[in-house]
């Protein structure tokens, strides 16, 4: 393993080995010890660097990919950025089908990283030909020598975290971890990390974080896909309107649902109290801890690890924009005044 004070051959050498950082304020009113695995320290600023590098290198090992080939993916942004980054270093073309829910910043960033981007409507069903799943599938069929990463249904997504995130957390906590809290989108992060950790200690509690408007929590509890659960929500990267094959529901003990509004305020509070500028789903995962803490779920010696998937800079036009917060109706006059904290000298 390389350390940050060494010299690196390229950015890909810096994927993984992210720090575990103590939360000193966010959960201080609860019993227990709380730490964040801060994935924005990856060179592509998110946990998706791990799966992009792992899946592409596995394809190379199997002889499926050779330089000049095209890599295709569906993505809310982070996976696309990571695949684009890996593609640059390794010499592939990168084509991305993204949801129209993704921020303009994210789309600009993907283009900056050399990717060809297709923006697809967010609020259509997964089998609609305009959905980003169907668009990616069609492009894959049309393009010779292309590989479709398909993170939602690719078991290698789970393996990437089983082989990296899980062992890192086990080592960093010296085996003391008692709870893992992680958002579930594809489910790769929580499934792979939990599988490794539970093999070391089956008593570790694994808590998934889901959005209102997503089918995941109900499916975990009933194994029923209930379309009635589906409605639009704002958090990107969390929850789903289908059941992802990259989620291993058996290693997850329970799901907690969080609202767009609570998660947004919590994300902002992390910046102001911990000095960590992290993404919307980091707010969502911390919000789940607050909800569990209010129910008295944590004990003095508990060692809770929460995964912070990405960096706050990706949400400047959304959760970190006062204008956007107001437009969503997330500000009342009280917290609007507190958040603005700005004075114009005329
Ligand atoms: N947070 C963000 C910002 C994401 O982009 C994703 C990935 N969709 C997740 C959380 C969830 O990670 P996973 O897909 O591994 O469940």
TrEMBL record:
It comes from Flaviramulus basaltis. It comes from the Bacteria. Residues 12-310 form the Tryptophan synthase beta chain-like PALP domain. Pfam families: PALP (PF00291). InterPro entries: Cys_Synth/Cystath_Beta-Synth, TrpB-like_PALP, TrpB-like_PALP_sf. Its cofactor is pyridoxal 5'-phosphate. GO terms for biological process: cysteine metabolic process; serine family amino acid metabolic process; sulfur compound biosynthetic process. Belongs to the cysteine synthase/cystathionine beta-synthase family. Keywords: Pyridoxal phosphate. This is Cystathionine beta-synthase. SUPFAM superfamilies: Tryptophan synthase beta subunit-like PLP-dependent enzymes.
